[in-house]
Amino acid sequence: MTRLQADVLVVGGGGSGLATAVRAAELGADVVLVEKNHELGGTSARAVGSVSASLTRFQRAKGIQDSLDEHFEDLGTLAGENVHRDNLALRRLYVENTGTTLEWLESLGIAFFGPMPEPPNRHPRMHNVLPNAGAYIHRLHRAGRKLGVRIVTDTRVEHLIREGGRVVGAECVAADGRRVTVRSKAVVLAAGDFSSSVELKTEHMGHDVARVEGVNPGSTGDGLRLGIEMGGRLLNADLALWGPEMRFVAPPRKLLLQMLPPVKALTACMQFALRFMPEGLLRPFIMAFATSYLAPTQDLYHAGAVLVNADGDRFTDETQKPWLDLPLQRDGVGYIVLDSRVAGNFREWPHFVSTAPGVAYAFIDDYRRNRKDIFHEARTVEELAAKIGVPPARLAAAVPSGEAPFIALGPVKSWIVMTDGGLATDESLRVLGPGDAPIPGLYAAGSNGQGGLILNGHGNHLGWAFVSGRLAAAAAVSEKAPATGVAR
Ligand SMILES: Cc1cc2nc3c(=O)[nH]c(=O)nc-3n(C[C@H](O)[C@H](O)[C@H](O)COP(=O)(O)OP(=O)(O)OC[C@H]3O[C@@H](n4cnc5c(N)ncnc54)[C@H](O)[C@@H]3O)c2cc1C
Question: What pLDDT does 282 receive?
């Protein structure tokens, strides 16, 4: 048994947990961060990496005159039909802190380009990280180490410890079975969403959706469960901004861009190139940047493409909700098959094959050039069947006659990219218990602390992870209760 003591215990080492730990340490706290995986990063490391922010130096450099009120209102527009379910206090808190948080991330050595426009935002606010989302984790981790944050990986937080109505630490189990007890004045839950928890998905989204895999298998909703065990409750747990939806599988090997280290010389070159290079030259780069999980548009099916399963059969009306039926097929994978006439409709704006969330639109030729792993082309349907490994006769029966060459895009799978339910929190990110009273000693950040906030649009989930992490840290550090009993 290992015993640790700290001022602040952070549960989870993704974007929000690392931001919490670094900020708390900057404010003078002794911090322990516990991460269940061997690697830090969570979903944050898999993200495209955009953060939405207003009143930034990037906006000023482009002469963009933004305001907090406009940012606040635009988030309401983005929330669409769910706007009445939004937490307006947290929305206000969020917009008031995006600019300073971006500055703080830059001060840690994280580089951005942008901002890019994303209607209906009135002003460009989407700032994209360079060279990839791994930069957040790398830089925050480094800052945490320098500040003396104790990072314990391969260790899962199992239960929180409560004494006299106050949360005072957690019981954890290491991968080798060793038990670890951490005592602290405050605990910040930052353990990510529940897109891979069958139980929570079944409870809040129903059986059909529960079958659909989460993009990150580690997003098991542990932080939410820990908060609920202490008397917290989930808000907006039936909402998922992205999912279930169809996405192409990620490339088998990491692309060069995803492997680039976030060193200053490289990110400075990239910033320069992105400012001055013509778009044509940048397309392969942008495509690669956002390529990990590209979502094909439903317009393909309306134009005549069909969706077949791994046996070459059509199995659903693909213009309806194919993402609910695909998980029931063999291996849960499918291929989108189209002839050259249909493909010809997806060569240029506004007819794209996929959007790479907000960063770029990808057309059929982008796939032909840049995603050879999921782009298959043949002169006949039978030849195409051989290329994707399905029975030729069955594929021929499934695909309407058309013009050669024939194209198959895939494998495609159905995913829940993330869930939006978070614990009810106040504006200090304190987790609220019965009667909306704060649970002493317990805070939440990122997905865990989403508190009913609607984060539609691109760049707002990571934006919230960093904003809420910083704010939860400041509040947790001011927690006065003494930790009891255990030596350091
Ligand atoms: C493909 C993809 C692309 C995306 N792109 C963007 C984007 O460009 N912009 C944007 O704003 N948002 C994006 N998002 C969403 C965004 O990445 C997430 O909402 C955000 O990263 C959540 O951060 P977090 O800190 O709350 O959770 P995470 O980053 O998931 O961190 C949670 C951590 O807690 C750990 N953990 C879990 N349980 C325990 C436990 N019991 N004990 C200890 N540790 C535990 C996990 O292993 C994980 O490391 C994207 C999501 C996906 C899937």
Answer: 62
